Amino acid sequence: MNKKIKYSVVVPVFNEEGNVASLHAEIVAEMNKLKSSYEIIFVNDASTDNTLEVLKKLSPITVVDLRKNSGQSSAMDAGIKQTSGEIIITMDGDGQNDPADISKLLEKMNQGFDVVCGWRKNRQDSFEKKFVSQGAKFLRRFFVDDGVHDSGCTLRVYKKLCFEGLDLYGEMHRMIPALMRWRGFKITEVEVNHRPRKNGVTKYTWSRTFKGFADMLGVWFWRRYESRPLHLFGSLGALMMFVSMIGLVFLAIGRLFFGYYLSDKIWPMIFLMGFLFGFQVLSTGVLADLIIKNKENKNYYNIKQVLNL
């Protein structure tokens, strides 16, 4: 029980009954070559097929069973928080990531890096997925430039300290390289093998694209205003209130001293609404600032059971 673990392999899975056994065997074979202690953690994201039953027959393995389907990022977060190793290795559960590349990533990490990302240079995916990925890649470069070619590749190795104080949810697993770079960790990438899916169906849907874009905007905002949302909302709200107030003063001067009639003009309503809207934006900044300063960690998933097999 007190044996220090060197490597922790985290694999989130959802409805992958045809892939988990062979993938586990490949991981075990690869980890045994490293001649160091390790643990393998599969996170069952409330699969509706026989994935959990297949996982229960494997060994060595730790199975984190989530009570409801929470998404890949939350499942990955649940697995990472369960790890005991100094180095965390993550990969997909569909068998398309090749465990044989783990040693290659670790060798690169030994050159002084904190995070090493896999780069699926020759992707074995449909044209649709590749097309959407290229569009997402362009948007990421604009909003959250992470400096890697393939932010969607789950095959990565990290030093565990990279995840201290970090919670994953939504589609944020794609944003991890950017988050790590912003936090000052040294990141690089290595070309890895990408295999065609043999069993099951892809979990990719168009809704994930829109959710990923929303998370991208959230990460962009979080990077700039994580601890100071009042700087954004407060400045914008104060500016709107100031401009509106100046407009109202000019209208009042025009009416009192120059006979400018306002009964048939829309400007008083525009400036008044601008002032009220600016006040609302300013109030939003104050409330966001209070929430940030009093926030508590929140889990976006619920663990039903943890099985050590």
Can you give a write-up of this model?
This protein has 309 residues and is of the alpha/beta class. It has two domains: 7-226, Spore Coat Polysaccharide Biosynthesis Protein SpsA, Chain A (Alpha-Beta Complex); 229-293. Helices cover 44% and strands 14% of the residues. It is built from nine helices and eight strands. The protein has helices spanning 20-33, 51-55, 72-80, 102-109, 127-143, 176-182, 206-225, 229-257, 267-293; strands at 7-13, 38-44, 62-66, 87-90, 115-119, 156-159, 187-191, 303-308. Strands 7-5-6-4-1-2-3-8 form an eight-stranded mixed sheet, with helices on both faces. Helix 5 (127-143) packs parallel to helix 7 (206-225) and helix 8 packs antiparallel against helix 9. The chain is elongated and about 90 Å long. The two termini are 14 Å apart.
Reconstruct the topology from this structure.
Elements: E1 7-13, H1 20-33, E2 38-44, H2 51-55, E3 62-66, H3 72-80, E4 87-90, H4 102-109, E5 115-119, H5 127-143, E6 156-159, H6 176-182, E7 187-191, H7 206-225, H8 229-257, H9 267-293, E8 303-308
Parallel strand pairs: 1-2, 1-4, 2-3, 5-7
Antiparallel strand pairs: 3-8, 4-6, 5-6
Helix pairs in contact: 5-7, 8-9
Brief overview:
The protein is an alpha/beta fold.
Helix content: 40-55%
Our Rg estimate from Cα atoms comes to 25 Å
Number of helices: 9
The H-and-E topology, N to C, reads as EHEHEHEHEHEHEHHHE
- How many beta-strand elements? 8
